[in-house]
Structure prediction request, 299 residues.
Amino acid sequence: MTPTGWRRWGAPLAPSQNDLSGIRYRYRDDRASSDTGPDTDKISEQGLDMTAKVALVTGAARGIGLATTHLFIEQGWHVAMIDRDGDELATAAAGITDAAPFVYDVSQPEQVDAMVAAVLEAYGRIDAVVNNAGVAEFGPIEQTDFAMWRRVMETNLDGVFLVSQACIPALKETKGAFLNIASISGLRASTLRVAYGTSKAAVIQLTKQQAAELGEYGIRANCVCPGPVRTKLAMAVHSQEIIDAYHDAIPLNRYGSEREIAEVIVFLCSERASYVTGQVVASDGGFDSTGVGLPALRK
Ligand SMILES: NC(=O)c1ccc[n+]([C@@H]2O[C@H](COP(=O)([O-])OP(=O)(O)OC[C@H]3O[C@@H](n4cnc5c(N)ncnc54)[C@H](O)[C@@H]3O)[C@@H](O)[C@H]2O)c1
Prediction:
């Protein structure tokens, strides 16, 4: 099967990245008893189980997106792993059962349409969309030029808008869920984050818009705001001084792990959260709930 649009924008993919034979469906006999597919009990012509739920996870090549992919699969889902970094995605996806890589850039409208078509061609359904792909560039307001502003906005905000809009018809079919990743930087203002923090605050509002407008179709939309996690994204902008300051300001006194964030994401996408929509959940060790002065009081 060769889905349309199966190439990275502007760069041909290596054959190994272009090969959907890597999709490993489980057959009905292998399904975990905890699987909660919809009523349709459908086996495809190829004998594939088409009732397992499918999550589309953007930014799945590493960090929080990769941890989320692993947790979905542990819970019986299939995962369409989306990332624009084809090499890292191919490495991440190799050996993962029940997932397949799709190399696309979520900030480009034409690519997003092709991406959703390719995922639907491969899996036939989408039950959850995790808008996780993100970039971080920090700088003072006066030194944040328009090019940097746009680089941050086009992935962190445009990407969430574009992917979500393109997936609405599929989520209407499954009464599925959007899960958007914002940040504590979208909840609280801080220095150097005029672009990043503003993009994440907008994602929080976009989530509420989605919940308000799409609830009538049975579609839920929620937002997770991670605190600091030692991923490549964070470590590129967190100096030792910033790390120490975070430890001081966070009641749990540490960074979170990718897995701790994934647990909240997968829960909110699951049937266990079937009456939860329009919510913003900080998974941040208590950072958002705490006022100024705590570090000093500890000493
Ligand atoms: N790590 C943290 O401390 C932290 C804190 C708060 C929020 N977040 C948010 O969590 C999300 C995941 O962050 P992470 O720390 O795992 O980052 P990461 O850099 O480890 O992973 C992000 C992935 O997204 C991909 N990506 C970036 N832009 C893309 C695009 N336009 N199209 C497709 N793929 C793209 C990258 O190639 C990368 O694989 C981001 O939205 C980030 O803003 C992270």
